[in-house]
């Protein structure tokens, strides 16, 4: 196959229909063929029916990570009474993120949904509908912090392919600050579905489960498995480990150590 030239059909269907109008006006001067193509009724119809690309981004100040804004550039709502094209607009996903000293960070984007944590509460945003949902904070008052100890709460975003549900996982641990010795560790799951939802404790698969302290790093969901970094014991004895969990019917599976050379 000769890759030196692209088929005109591919150029029209996949490239030209996704360009802004100003660029198309300039490309009409390329040749008579392009002039005829771009000004044709067929191309005009295709251009109006192809959805405009959407751009989503998270911006933060490198000198102050608390100064964060999540932006979206998407077409405004279409006018059903006319066939005119919509104009792009940029808007803030959450204006509260500009509040001083109340920054946030992105967890992961799955299936068109953006998940991020704001003021210790996970939030799910649907860019297509501009809907923003704040999940309730997972309380852990029953996990007592001893003198010299610290409690850490981390959130992870995943997709359960078996049940076709999006889930947010909360990993809570209590450890000693001096040597990172783990005192207690729990995992909770919040299923994102219609109706009343609540946090449910993940059933542990003993003896596979190891109490751990989740690191301050985003997790990654691959094929229904959430991978994240964690510390499995005192600093003098432990190595950093990759911990993986697949959530099926709220059961938590975990794999063992991965030593770093």
List low-confidence stretches: 75-103, 236-242, 246-261
The profile of the biggest β sheet is: 6 strands, mixed
Order of helices and strands: HHHHEEEEEEEEEEEEEEEEE
- Helix content range: 10-25%
**SS-based class:** mainly beta
Rg: 24 Å
Tally of discrete structural domains: 3
Shape descriptor? elongated
User: How far apart, in Å, are the first and last alpha carbons?
Assistant: 45 Å
Counting DSSP E segments of at least 2 residues, the number of strands comes to 17
Mean pLDDT reading: 68
Strand content: 35-45%
Descriptive overview:
It is elongated, with a radius of gyration of 24 Å. The chain has helices at residues 8-15, 21-27, 32-38, 41-49; strands at residues 55-61, 64-75, 88-92, 104-110, 113-118, 121-126, 131-134, 149-160, 165-176, 182-192, 199-201, 203-204, 213-214, 220-222, 225-231, 240-248, 251-252. The strands form four sheets. Strands 12, 13, 14, 15, 16 and 17 form a six-stranded mixed beta sheet that branches. It is built from four helices and 17 strands. The model is unreliable at 75-103, 236-242 and 246-261 (pLDDT under 50). The protein has three domains: 8-49, no CATH class; 52-134, no CATH class; 135-261, no CATH class. With 261 residues, it is mainly beta. Residues 6-47 form the F-box domain. InterPro entries: F-box-assoc_dom_typ3 (IPR013187), F-box-assoc_interact_dom (IPR017451), F-box-like_dom_sf (IPR036047), F-box_dom (IPR001810). This is F-box domain-containing protein.
